[in-house]
Amino acid sequence: MKAQEDVERPMHPLVSKYLRLERMPHMACPGCGIGQVIHSTLIACDDLALTPENTVWVQGVGCSSRITYTLWKGDSIDAHHGRIFAVATGMKMSRPDLNFICFTGDGDCMAIGGNHFLHACRRNLDVTALMFNNAIYGMTGGQVAPTSPVGARTTTTPYGNIEDPLDTVNVAIAAGASYVARWRATDFKQLTKSIKKGIKTKGFSYIEILVQCPTQFGRYVLNTGDPAKIIEWYKENTVRLKKAEKMSPEQLKDKILIGEFAQRKDRTGIVERYWEMVKEIQGERA
Hints:
Helices cover 41% and strands 15% of the residues. The protein is of the alpha/beta class.
Protein backbone atom coordinates (compact mmCIF):
# COMPACT_ATOMS: atom_id res chain seq x y z
CA MET A 1 0.00 0.00 0.00
CA LYS A 2 1.26 3.46 -0.84
CA ALA A 3 2.05 5.86 1.95
CA GLN A 4 -0.68 8.45 2.48
CA GLU A 5 1.41 11.27 1.00
CA ASP A 6 2.11 9.20 -2.14
CA VAL A 7 -1.54 8.45 -2.98
CA GLU A 8 -2.50 10.24 -6.18
CA ARG A 9 -5.39 12.65 -5.82
CA PRO A 10 -7.98 13.09 -8.57
CA MET A 11 -7.10 15.96 -10.88
CA HIS A 12 -9.58 18.82 -11.17
CA PRO A 13 -10.57 19.32 -14.84
CA LEU A 14 -9.68 23.01 -14.65
CA VAL A 15 -6.09 22.10 -13.81
CA SER A 16 -5.51 20.21 -17.07
CA LYS A 17 -7.38 22.87 -19.04
CA TYR A 18 -5.51 25.93 -17.81
CA LEU A 19 -2.32 24.79 -16.06
CA ARG A 20 0.80 23.15 -17.41
CA LEU A 21 1.21 20.45 -14.79
CA GLU A 22 -1.08 17.51 -14.12
CA ARG A 23 -1.16 18.49 -10.49
CA MET A 24 -1.26 22.04 -9.23
CA PRO A 25 1.44 22.36 -6.60
CA HIS A 26 0.57 25.05 -4.10
CA MET A 27 3.55 27.38 -4.36
CA ALA A 28 2.23 29.56 -1.56
CA CYS A 29 2.74 28.75 2.12
CA PRO A 30 0.40 26.22 3.76
CA GLY A 31 -2.81 27.96 4.80
CA CYS A 32 -2.36 30.95 2.48
CA GLY A 33 -5.47 32.20 0.67
CA ILE A 34 -3.78 32.49 -2.73
CA GLY A 35 -4.86 29.00 -3.77
CA GLN A 36 -8.48 29.90 -3.03
CA VAL A 37 -8.24 32.94 -5.29
CA ILE A 38 -6.63 30.90 -8.08
CA HIS A 39 -9.53 28.45 -7.87
CA SER A 40 -12.14 31.23 -8.09
CA THR A 41 -10.30 32.81 -11.01
CA LEU A 42 -10.11 29.59 -13.03
CA ILE A 43 -13.81 28.90 -12.50
CA ALA A 44 -14.63 32.44 -13.63
CA CYS A 45 -12.49 31.98 -16.74
CA ASP A 46 -14.16 28.67 -17.51
CA ASP A 47 -17.68 30.04 -17.04
CA LEU A 48 -16.89 32.89 -19.47
CA ALA A 49 -15.22 30.56 -22.01
CA LEU A 50 -11.84 32.26 -21.64
CA THR A 51 -8.97 30.14 -22.89
CA PRO A 52 -5.16 30.18 -22.67
CA GLU A 53 -5.24 31.33 -26.30
CA ASN A 54 -7.30 34.47 -25.71
CA THR A 55 -6.23 35.38 -22.18
CA VAL A 56 -2.96 36.88 -20.97
CA TRP A 57 -1.75 37.08 -17.38
CA VAL A 58 0.29 40.08 -16.30
CA GLN A 59 1.84 39.66 -12.88
CA GLY A 60 3.94 41.81 -10.62
CA VAL A 61 6.50 40.83 -8.00
CA GLY A 62 5.37 39.09 -4.84
CA CYS A 63 3.53 36.08 -3.46
CA SER A 64 0.53 36.86 -5.66
CA SER A 65 2.41 36.39 -8.89
CA ARG A 66 4.33 33.14 -8.53
CA ILE A 67 1.63 30.72 -9.62
CA THR A 68 0.61 32.24 -12.93
CA TYR A 69 4.05 32.56 -14.48
CA THR A 70 5.01 29.01 -13.53
CA LEU A 71 1.80 27.16 -14.35
CA TRP A 72 -0.49 29.10 -16.73
CA LYS A 73 -0.65 27.39 -20.13
CA GLY A 74 -1.12 30.61 -22.08
CA ASP A 75 0.95 33.76 -22.31
CA SER A 76 2.02 35.65 -19.21
CA ILE A 77 4.52 38.40 -18.55
CA ASP A 78 6.43 39.44 -15.44
CA ALA A 79 6.47 43.18 -14.91
CA HIS A 80 9.08 45.02 -12.92
CA HIS A 81 8.08 45.61 -9.31
CA GLY A 82 5.19 48.09 -9.27
CA ARG A 83 5.08 48.47 -13.06
CA ILE A 84 2.37 45.93 -13.77
CA PHE A 85 -0.16 48.41 -15.19
CA ALA A 86 2.38 50.18 -17.37
CA VAL A 87 3.16 46.83 -19.01
CA ALA A 88 -0.52 45.88 -19.23
CA THR A 89 -1.31 49.24 -20.88
CA GLY A 90 1.09 48.65 -23.76
CA MET A 91 -0.11 45.10 -24.29
CA LYS A 92 -3.84 45.89 -24.17
CA MET A 93 -3.45 48.91 -26.44
CA SER A 94 -1.76 46.77 -29.08
CA ARG A 95 -4.02 43.71 -28.66
CA PRO A 96 -7.48 44.93 -27.61
CA ASP A 97 -8.95 41.60 -28.71
CA LEU A 98 -7.29 39.71 -25.83
CA ASN A 99 -8.41 39.43 -22.21
CA PHE A 100 -5.89 40.68 -19.66
CA ILE A 101 -5.92 39.59 -16.02
CA CYS A 102 -3.45 41.26 -13.67
CA PHE A 103 -2.28 39.60 -10.46
CA THR A 104 -0.71 41.99 -7.98
CA GLY A 105 -0.17 42.41 -4.25
CA ASP A 106 -0.63 45.25 -1.81
CA GLY A 107 3.07 46.14 -1.86
CA ASP A 108 3.47 45.76 -5.62
CA CYS A 109 0.26 47.66 -6.42
CA MET A 110 -0.09 50.22 -3.65
CA ALA A 111 3.44 51.02 -2.51
CA ILE A 112 6.01 51.13 -5.31
CA GLY A 113 3.24 50.83 -7.92
CA GLY A 114 0.78 53.33 -6.46
CA ASN A 115 1.33 55.94 -9.16
CA HIS A 116 0.79 53.44 -11.98
CA PHE A 117 -2.37 52.20 -10.26
CA LEU A 118 -3.82 55.71 -10.13
CA HIS A 119 -3.33 56.27 -13.83
CA ALA A 120 -4.70 52.85 -14.79
CA CYS A 121 -7.88 53.85 -12.96
CA ARG A 122 -7.87 57.35 -14.47
CA ARG A 123 -7.42 56.01 -17.99
CA ASN A 124 -10.01 53.30 -17.31
CA LEU A 125 -7.68 50.72 -18.81
CA ASP A 126 -9.68 47.69 -19.94
CA VAL A 127 -8.09 45.01 -17.76
CA THR A 128 -9.13 43.05 -14.67
CA ALA A 129 -6.87 43.60 -11.66
CA LEU A 130 -6.92 41.23 -8.70
CA MET A 131 -5.04 42.72 -5.75
CA PHE A 132 -4.00 40.16 -3.11
CA ASN A 133 -3.98 42.06 0.18
CA ASN A 134 -2.26 40.21 3.01
CA ALA A 135 -1.55 43.53 4.80
CA ILE A 136 2.19 42.85 4.96
CA TYR A 137 5.17 42.14 2.71
CA GLY A 138 4.82 38.38 2.62
CA MET A 139 7.58 37.25 0.27
CA THR A 140 10.43 39.47 1.45
CA GLY A 141 10.36 39.12 5.21
CA GLY A 142 7.26 40.56 6.85
CA GLN A 143 7.87 44.30 6.50
CA VAL A 144 5.12 46.84 7.06
CA ALA A 145 2.94 47.53 4.00
CA PRO A 146 0.71 50.50 3.08
CA THR A 147 -2.24 48.27 4.01
CA SER A 148 -0.97 47.13 7.42
CA PRO A 149 -3.32 48.07 10.28
CA VAL A 150 -2.39 50.66 12.89
CA GLY A 151 -0.44 49.03 15.69
CA ALA A 152 0.77 46.10 13.57
CA ARG A 153 4.13 44.79 14.76
CA THR A 154 6.20 43.78 11.76
CA THR A 155 9.90 43.34 11.07
CA THR A 156 10.17 47.05 10.25
CA THR A 157 7.69 48.30 12.86
CA PRO A 158 8.73 46.35 15.98
CA TYR A 159 7.01 48.87 18.23
CA GLY A 160 3.82 48.97 16.18
CA ASN A 161 2.75 50.64 12.93
CA ILE A 162 1.85 54.32 13.44
CA GLU A 163 0.46 54.90 9.91
CA ASP A 164 -3.15 54.58 8.80
CA PRO A 165 -3.69 51.87 6.17
CA LEU A 166 -4.59 52.93 2.65
CA ASP A 167 -8.23 52.29 1.72
CA THR A 168 -7.51 51.05 -1.80
CA VAL A 169 -11.17 50.71 -2.74
CA ASN A 170 -11.88 54.39 -2.16
CA VAL A 171 -8.72 55.30 -4.09
CA ALA A 172 -9.86 53.20 -7.07
CA ILE A 173 -13.32 54.78 -7.06
CA ALA A 174 -11.98 58.32 -6.78
CA ALA A 175 -9.45 57.71 -9.56
CA GLY A 176 -12.13 56.50 -11.99
CA ALA A 177 -12.22 52.67 -12.07
CA SER A 178 -15.33 51.18 -13.67
CA TYR A 179 -15.78 48.22 -11.33
CA VAL A 180 -14.58 48.09 -7.74
CA ALA A 181 -15.08 45.34 -5.15
CA ARG A 182 -13.46 43.88 -2.05
CA TRP A 183 -13.85 40.34 -0.72
CA ARG A 184 -12.10 37.87 1.54
CA ALA A 185 -10.36 34.90 -0.06
CA THR A 186 -12.84 32.68 1.77
CA ASP A 187 -15.85 34.38 0.11
CA PHE A 188 -15.69 31.81 -2.67
CA LYS A 189 -19.05 32.33 -4.42
CA GLN A 190 -19.02 36.10 -4.11
CA LEU A 191 -15.42 36.32 -5.30
CA THR A 192 -16.02 34.09 -8.33
CA LYS A 193 -19.08 36.11 -9.29
CA SER A 194 -17.15 39.35 -8.81
CA ILE A 195 -14.23 38.22 -10.99
CA LYS A 196 -16.70 37.34 -13.75
CA LYS A 197 -18.25 40.80 -13.48
CA GLY A 198 -14.82 42.37 -13.61
CA ILE A 199 -13.84 40.48 -16.74
CA LYS A 200 -17.09 41.41 -18.50
CA THR A 201 -16.86 45.08 -17.50
CA LYS A 202 -15.48 47.48 -20.10
CA GLY A 203 -12.83 49.58 -18.44
CA PHE A 204 -10.69 49.11 -15.34
CA SER A 205 -11.96 46.45 -12.95
CA TYR A 206 -10.35 46.36 -9.51
CA ILE A 207 -11.00 43.61 -6.97
CA GLU A 208 -9.17 43.70 -3.65
CA ILE A 209 -8.96 40.31 -1.93
CA LEU A 210 -8.16 39.97 1.77
CA VAL A 211 -5.81 36.99 1.82
CA GLN A 212 -4.84 35.24 5.04
CA CYS A 213 -1.06 35.00 5.52
CA PRO A 214 -0.05 32.63 8.35
CA THR A 215 3.69 32.94 7.72
CA GLN A 216 4.06 36.72 8.02
CA PHE A 217 0.86 38.59 8.98
CA GLY A 218 -0.29 35.85 11.33
CA ARG A 219 3.08 35.32 12.96
CA TYR A 220 4.05 38.96 13.41
CA VAL A 221 0.75 40.83 13.72
CA LEU A 222 -1.62 38.28 15.28
CA ASN A 223 0.97 36.11 17.04
CA THR A 224 -0.36 32.94 15.45
CA GLY A 225 0.48 30.75 12.49
CA ASP A 226 -2.91 29.04 12.54
CA PRO A 227 -4.78 29.85 9.29
CA ALA A 228 -8.15 29.17 10.95
CA LYS A 229 -7.50 31.83 13.58
CA ILE A 230 -6.47 34.35 10.92
CA ILE A 231 -9.61 33.62 8.89
CA GLU A 232 -11.65 34.13 12.07
CA TRP A 233 -9.86 37.47 12.65
CA TYR A 234 -10.92 38.62 9.18
CA LYS A 235 -14.52 37.56 9.86
CA GLU A 236 -14.56 39.54 13.08
CA ASN A 237 -13.02 42.64 11.47
CA THR A 238 -14.98 42.82 8.20
CA VAL A 239 -18.52 44.03 7.58
CA ARG A 240 -20.72 43.62 4.52
CA LEU A 241 -21.81 46.89 2.91
CA LYS A 242 -25.52 46.26 3.44
CA LYS A 243 -24.99 45.55 7.12
CA ALA A 244 -22.76 48.62 7.46
CA GLU A 245 -25.63 50.87 6.35
CA LYS A 246 -27.40 50.10 9.64
CA MET A 247 -24.35 50.53 11.85
CA SER A 248 -23.07 53.65 13.60
CA PRO A 249 -19.64 55.22 12.97
CA GLU A 250 -18.56 53.94 16.39
CA GLN A 251 -19.55 50.38 15.48
CA LEU A 252 -17.70 50.62 12.17
CA LYS A 253 -14.49 52.00 13.67
CA ASP A 254 -11.48 49.96 12.45
CA LYS A 255 -13.75 47.62 10.47
CA ILE A 256 -13.02 46.69 6.84
CA LEU A 257 -16.00 46.95 4.49
CA ILE A 258 -16.48 44.19 1.91
CA GLY A 259 -18.78 43.92 -1.09
CA GLU A 260 -19.28 45.63 -4.44
CA PHE A 261 -18.55 49.34 -4.22
CA ALA A 262 -18.91 50.63 -7.78
CA GLN A 263 -20.00 49.49 -11.22
CA ARG A 264 -19.94 52.30 -13.77
CA LYS A 265 -21.03 52.12 -17.37
CA ASP A 266 -21.05 55.84 -18.10
CA ARG A 267 -17.51 56.33 -19.37
CA THR A 268 -15.27 54.81 -22.00
CA GLY A 269 -11.59 54.05 -21.53
CA ILE A 270 -8.27 54.71 -23.16
CA VAL A 271 -8.25 51.54 -25.29
CA GLU A 272 -11.61 52.20 -26.93
CA ARG A 273 -10.81 55.89 -27.45
CA TYR A 274 -7.40 55.11 -28.91
CA TRP A 275 -8.74 52.74 -31.56
CA GLU A 276 -11.54 55.14 -32.43
CA MET A 277 -8.89 57.81 -33.02
CA VAL A 278 -6.78 55.43 -35.14
CA LYS A 279 -9.73 54.54 -37.35
CA GLU A 280 -10.65 58.20 -37.71
CA ILE A 281 -7.13 59.16 -38.75
CA GLN A 282 -6.85 56.24 -41.14
CA GLY A 283 -10.17 57.26 -42.67
CA GLU A 284 -8.95 60.81 -43.22
CA ARG A 285 -5.81 59.59 -44.95
CA ALA A 286 -7.62 57.12 -47.22
